[in-house]
Amino acid sequence: MRLYTIIFLLLFAQGAFAQAKDSLAVKDTTSTQEKTHFIAGVLYNSGLNYYGRVDSLHSKAIDPFVGLALKNGLYVNANFVFIQNSLQSQYAATLLEGGYNFKNHKGNWAGNLSVSRFFYQQDINLIQSAVREAASASITQLNKVINITLGANVKWSDQTDIGVQAGLDHIIRIPHIFGNDVIVLDPTANVYAGTQNFTQTYYQQHNFLIFPVSEQQVTTNSQQFNILAYEFSFPMVYGYKKFNFILTPAYVLPQNLLVVPNQPSLSENGANLFYLTAAVKFTL
User: Fold this and answer.
1) Which parts of the chain have pLDDT scores under 70?
2) Which end of the chain is less crowded, N or C, counting CB atoms within 10 A of the terminal residue's CB?
């Protein structure tokens, strides 16, 4: 069975998609795209997970990021991931991502196309370190009642995994609290599904006439498409001039964890998990 050893859900890394897309990414209500923007900031994640799958050390992460968003919707981001747990505190990986955010003239449809490349520190003990590249696409129907998002992604490692997402959210915008500022609340529910690759090993008995003469170990690779997780989150954004302060509590319920009988070290480790992400973002 191919296992992931860690993932980082990057709030501003749109292409990774599994993890952890920012629910405000294609519905940005705190800044304008009338010109090119330089973006920089830092994110803290209290519980790194991959659709609720976690490493046994329950790692946390600090994620500085920089990016450039052009007024035509094209963008490029770089994220630098530093992990912390009871055994280590170190730089773990860099994610480079390029993509395109778009919205129609009426403002009722928005979407994202992106590709990502992962660069891992050598011998780092991480979840999702098997994934080298990813591509994703999503489309959101925007309205005053509830936004509907559908998305799909492909992740490449030694094998190819396909994933899909469906989500609902409702944006609440409260402007001018203390003058030139805004508060945005975005309660969100998502369901994630995708392929899971695993190995099955069994013994095949060979007979001569009716008498067993030998046994042969047979190993086969299998792939299943399953629901991976349900997740509920509540992004809260305070925007003041060029700064966004973002806090997102989230609760994820992993589904269909892969289990190898009598081998817990080869089984996926996961349980219902509450975690927080907090970020400061500066846009110039």
Assistant:
1) 1-33, 123-130, 198-222, 260, 262-266
2) C
* Rounded-to-integer distance, Cα 212 and Cα 5, Å: 41
Residue ranges of domains in the chain: 37-283
How many other β-carbons are positioned within 10 Å of the β-carbon of residue 268? 22
The two three-digit tokens of residue 100, written as one number: 């395109």
Q: Can you tell me the distance from the alpha carbon of 124 to that of 6, in angstroms, rounded to the nearest whole number? A: 10
> How far apart are alpha carbons 127 and 199 in whole angstroms?
19
Block residue for tokens 């696409």? 137
Using CA atoms, how far apart are residues 60 and 54, in angstroms rounded to an integer? Answer: 11
3-state SS of the chain is CCCCCCCCCCCCCCCCCCCCCCCCCCCCCCCCCCCCEEEEEEEEECCCCECCECCCCCCEEEEEEEEEECCCCEEEEEEEEEEECCCCEEEEEEEEEEEEEEECCCCCEEEEEEEEEEEECCCCCCCCCCCCEEEEEEEEECCCCCEEEEEEEEEECCCEEEEEEEEEECCEEEECCCCCEEEEECCEEEEEEEEEEEEEEEEEEEEECCEEEEEEEEEEEEEEEEEEEEEEECCEEEEECCEEEEEEEEEEEECCCCCCCCCHHHCCCECCEEEEEEEEEEEC
Residues present in the chain in total:
284
Comparing CA positions, the residue from 60, 95, 98 lying closest to residue 80 is 95
| pTM strictly above 0.70 | yes
Determine whether domain 37-283 maps to CATH 3.30.70.360.
Answer: no
